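On clarity, I found the account of how folds are encoded harder to follow than it need be. Since the whole study asks how a given chain folds, the encoding of that fold should be made plain. For illustration, here is how one protein appears when written out as sequence plus structure tokens:

:::
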Amino acid sequence: MGQAATPALAAAVSNAGGLGVLGATGCSPARLRRWIRETRELTSRPFGVDTILPASVRRAATAGGRPPQPPPELMSSHAGFAKQFMQQEGLEPVDREARARAAGLEPEDLAGPQPLSQAFFEAQMEVVIEERVPVYAAGLGNPGPWIDRLHANGTVVLSVVGAVKHLRAVLDAGVDAIVAQGSDGGGHNSPIGTLALIPQVVDAAGGVPVLGAGGIGDGRGVAAALMLGAEGAWIGTAFLATPESGIPEYQKRALVAADSSSTLVSRAVTGKPVRMLRGSWATAWEESGREALPMPWQSVVASPVLASATVHERADVNPGIAGQGAGLVRGIEPAARVLRRIAAEAEAALARAGAWLESPRAEPGRKPS
């Protein structure tokens, strides 16, 4: 959930009986340490930290440093497209400090490793280990290189996968649980639908617990995940429109106004497929037929556009990241209330299923009329 999942949101979810997770994808190491400590002040219950560990960046680092910069003419062409787009949309460029504020960053967060670089990811992981967080979740990539040190701290390690073929590597690494996230989910996701993905991951996981994710926005979705063999649900979009969420208010309003057809998947933001609310930047990029640059270079192209749109509250340009469960979000309400409602709805859905099975009409080979 990027920096939408703040200490306030993670703590509220944990205090209400769930497992709150800090979304630390673009969080500087210094800020991540502050967030972990702030969360501990807000809850005595377990919580987690989620970062990404993209294999493409790590492979490039192994080969000699940061991923190679695309040809200058390609970078110039893409930057020119972004500049022209901003002119067409009437978006004024914003300076570095304003861009940082738009991302919720403090001035000290601007120092240190370049975001989305190998040094950045490694520095984040050192903080996670040093702070001995209860749960760590790799939202993208394999946490294998750090897993022994995490386990030595008693940290429970989760890994998010979007296909069965990605499962073996993280199982061999020794993760404690799997999150099977289908294409319905917001953010970096899978080409496989959630309903098809969960049972296949459960079957291949060899008894390692699986959580279902992707488009699960209410208790009926949680019940469905359980029926598919998952032991719980990993939910993001349902908690975006809460007072505790770190996204701008204009994006919360855009989320409440969204429906099931309001999202698209685009590489326009990070270079990897991301499901987001439909805005003119992603739409224009997809319609241009341009090939996105690899991470982190696409973010270099997109960040001036998105920062200006955020500063100027342009929901038509950058309405934010969300999954297809956006249509289930009815209003802005506290995270604890959202969690308790989802739990109650799941219990009700499971009770209805139990009643269906216990019905005398549900005889073998005969459907209830």
User: Anything to note?
Assistant: The chain has one domain: 7-358. The first strand starts at residue 20 and ends at 23.
